[in-house]
Predict the structure.
Amino acid sequence: MELRECEVFIDLSETRNISKTAERLGYSQPGVSHILKTMEEECGFILAIRQKYGLTLTPMGQQLLPAMKGLLERRENLNETISAINGLEEGQISIGTYSSVSIHLLPNILKQFSRLHPTIQFSIREGGVDSILNDLKEHNVDFAFMSVPDSFKGDFIPLMDDPLVAIFPKGSDYVKKHKKLLVTDLKDMNLIISAAGNDYDINKALRDTDIANSASFSFFDDRSIISMVGSGLGVSILSELIIRGEIKNLDILPLYPPAKRVLGIACLDASLLSPASRTFIDFAKNFF
């Protein structure tokens, strides 16, 4: 039985609610249900019963609970010993990141990591591609959550694909008539785009056209772009992560041809990272 399964079961014994445990531990609700089912299959008996007002542990589940807590306690003691050896009991990690990552992905990762390493301090610096690359070069950050241009010479760990989409004002006639945005159609639209150096991925998607050079507006802040489009001043291309939770005044279409940005962790030289940074990166990879 895996330690993460024990952690989920212990939390379920406290919340008596699959949704609450999923939220607290950063899983999906089906993911928690799957873990519980897998544990029951491994054990050969039912560990918990789902009832109208919550989840109740069976007598067999109650019997296993102390052993699971003891296992996690021993794991924590081992981690503390390893942390002490590697100097993780104190220290600071400096992270560069896009605002979309710091809003939608980083909070849960930091929360879970801080539960294991409560004395580690974090410094977060948001920016666009050029500013983050400069922070890496100047050693203002240890590593960064970002997508990297083709010219990047450091180390990069890809974590997730983030598709690019077209955003229109709500009720757009174009969206009513089309299921995808033909990139070439942008030449007839008021294009609002990220400023040069802020987002290479969008410019890469428009590489074979001259559309990016004729944009009506350019901004460094993605939220400004969303606000401008929502106000009916034009259309734009952003990633799905950037617009997450911001679609109230927008219509969305996929691009044709499709385009994406690859988000990951970038650093100048992974072999030079501190033990704390390496531990955090290994931990963060589990959330993608």
In short: The chain has a mean pLDDT of 89. The radius of gyration is 23 Å. The CA atoms of residues 102 and 126 lie 8 Å apart. The longest strand covers residues 155-169.
